[in-house]
TrEMBL record:
This is Glycosyltransferase 2-like domain-containing protein. Residues 12-98 form the Glycosyltransferase 2-like domain. InterPro entries: Glyco_trans_2-like, Glycosyltransferase_2, Nucleotide-diphossugar_trans. Transmembrane segments: none annotated. It holds the Pfam family Glycos_transf_2. The lineage of its organism: Bacteria, Candidatus Gottesmaniibacteriota. Coiled coil: none annotated. It comes from Candidatus Gottesmanbacteria bacterium RIFCSPHIGHO2_01_FULL_39_10.
């Protein structure tokens, strides 16, 4: 049973940059949530989207825009600044595939029921097998439900940028011995080669791994891959 919306406070932050082809699809799904009270969509300097059209299409969503691209971390900070009274934040990427609102609401309900948890990571269940082997479908998944107070502290204390936010969150949770778990889903995101083409997509992919491996030591990264967030939240086997 889902917990009624007025018994809690959950906000959703969706940063996006040049994802005009997917942001509307994501919003069509997430605005159907029975759990989320506020949705903040942060346009991080996109050139391919009509914000006025999105505002008309989704009047319940708060849109915040930057004139140029500052990166995901800065976008989430801008979104967080618009939130006044939410206990939990749902972080979502704008280019997700197989997003299912029943699964999202079930995961949100889980973190409220399991009061000892400080974060739930939404596993990217349709990622390639190599991602699952090395657990990057969990450890660097950008889809997370996290307590607002902890996210605020992470953004203030950690010097993460671009693709480094997830590792910074993991690091903070390990340092403070906080409890987290992962929730199986069928979510995945568009690959960089699908979004940008083979050459440019692989350049972005190399930049991502460079950012990840320059944030933390190789040993700490390997520790996160194999030992962080090992608890699984039981859920229905299929999300169709």
């Amino acid at each position: 049973m889902l917990i009624p919306k007025n018994n809690h406070s959950i906000a959703c932050i969706i940063p996006f940059f040049n994802e005009g082809k997917t942001i509307a699809k994501t919003l069509k799904i997430i605005t159907k949530s029975s759990m989320i009270e506020q949705i903040i969509c942060v346009n991080d300097g996109s050139k391919d989207v009509d914000i006025d059209k999105l505002k008309n299409q989704f009047p319940s969503v708060l849109f915040v825009s930057s004139r140029r691209n500052y990166g995901k971390v800065a976008a989430i900070k801008r979104g967080l600044a618009q939130i006044s009274n939410s206990k939990y934040i749902l972080l979502l990427d704008a280019d997700l595939k197989h997003l299912n609102i029943k699964v999202i609401d079930s995961a949100l309900s889980s973190i409220i029921k399991l009061k000892s948890l400080d974060m739930i990571i939404l596993q990217r269940g349709r990622d390639p097998d190599i991602h699952k082997l090395f657990r990057t479908d969990i450890v660097i998944s950008g889809q997370r439900i996290i307590t607002t107070s902890h996210l605020q502290k992470i953004l203030k204390s950690k010097k993460a940028k671009k693709y480094q936010l997830e590792l910074a969150i993991n690091e903070y949770f390990i340092e403070n011995n906080l409890k987290t778990a992962y929730y199986p889903t069928n979510i995945t995101d568009k690959s960089k080669t699908d979004k940008h083409g083979f050459i440019l997509g692989n350049i972005y992919k190399l930049r991502m791994w460079r950012d990840l491996l320059t944030y933390t030591s190789l040993g700490d990264y390997i520790f996160q891959l194999f030992f962080f967030c090992r608890t699984k939240i039981a859920s229905k086997p299929a999300f169709r």
